[in-house]
């Protein structure tokens, strides 16, 4: 790391003690900026780097709620409004017991550059709570969401901050939160949340967008080598929103996804995943991966090790951060994997990324490869603002174009800074320069 960025990184570690995921995300971006600063030293002027690693605003609040047995629970809510240079803060809400300030900050930081890559005029933010929706009734989830939104509503708005879903937050939770926001504000501000239901301001393709985009990114990377996904064996982790629609798009492009997982284990289905059954189990019944295996002859459930132990051509990590470590990366490489496209945020550890890059395989980092979700959220905002609704084909064509543009921006930036084929450098450099140029134009704010 260059001296100038090293100093900024040390300050981040000292100021944000114990927030290891945030340190990791900042390190990865700053490391990539060496060649950018060397070529354009003005990006280090005016404490720009120091400003970009400091959130504009951090909100932390109490979320009290009552369960079905009458017991009172207290969770913690977060919203990190990280950077508004390019537009209103935009980024999802995560409900998971592991959520803390460091995790939300890493996600918010990543979101700045991801959103810049989409070229859609959206700033970076993220939020969530350590609430665990697993095993909770709809009524409990509703009461939690109402309490969470009662505080969050003061801080968000269609031109201020526009949250969406993430782990543990899907259509049901967005619905409860939108209902409470509307009631508190007495205003039907459809553009305040994205990922809404189709009958009340949602966009076609938003549900599919992140998973579809991750696969489209893999397809674009393969195209640079004259290859495609056709006939390839695909390993997917996770069994949530991103994983399910990554599997769907991979199947549409002629590949065979053979795995998925949740926190109880992973499934190998050598015949190819039965997508309708997986949707029934996960989206309709909110079940576990074992429920799929019970109804699918030939599929097996594995509860030890990880999905990356299975040999395959393409890996799509779609569960959570740091789910793919250095050992798993080497196992994947030995199994013949030549493409990794990250559906999740920061799923590969630094050791894993290093192993992929050393091996020279195609590696698409999450901030580029999973940007289709937020890009389609911005398309939802656009439809809300115009009080219009596009059909599926129109929205999907826009998503496809945006993913192709993101891919090409990464390729161009990697070439410009002397590391052709390095999508990590390309994504960080292209995202950073777009935000940095606007921060300079806005002065010291
Ligand atoms: P969901 O909640 O729909 O699904 C998450 C899946 O990952 C579940 O199968 C869950 O299993 C599994 N998972 C989560 N945490 C862990 C863990 N600690 N260990 C093992 N398995 C785990 O979330 P999404 O599909 O929306 O999000 C997945 C990833 O994609 C996240 O990293 C998210 O930040 C990222 N992402 C999502 C976007 C979106 O549009 N939804 C946009 C861009 C990125 P279980 O149910 O057992 O916990």
Could you spell the SSE succession in H and E letters? HHHHEEEHEHEHHEHEEEHHEEHEHEHHHH
Class of secondary structure makeup: alpha/beta
Radius of gyration: 21 Å
Low-confidence stretches: none
Largest sheet: 5 strands, mixed
- Quick one: CATH superfamily of the largest domain? NAD(P)-binding Rossmann-like Domain
CATH topology call of the largest domain: Rossmann fold
How do the strands of the widest beta sheet line up side by side?
A: 1-2-4-3-5
**Global mean pLDDT:** 97
- Number of self-contained structural domains: 3
Number of strands: 13
| CATH top-level class of the largest domain | Alpha Beta
In whole angstroms, the N-to-C terminal distance is: 27 Å
Portion of residues within helices: 40-55%
Q: Oligomeric state of the chains?
A: single chain
Please tell me about this protein's structure.
This is Glutamate dehydrogenase. Catalyzes the reversible oxidative deamination of glutamate to alpha-ketoglutarate and ammonia. Keywords: NAD, Nucleotide-binding, Oxidoreductase. Pfam families: ELFV_dehydrog, ELFV_dehydrog_N. By secondary structure, the chain is α/β, with parallel strands linked by helices. 48% of the residues lie in helices and 15% in strands. The protein has 17 helices and 13 strands. A hairpin with a 5-residue loop joins strand 1 (57-66) and strand 2 (72-83). The longest helix has 25 residues, at 392-416. The chain is globular, with a radius of gyration of 21 Å. The mean pLDDT is 97.
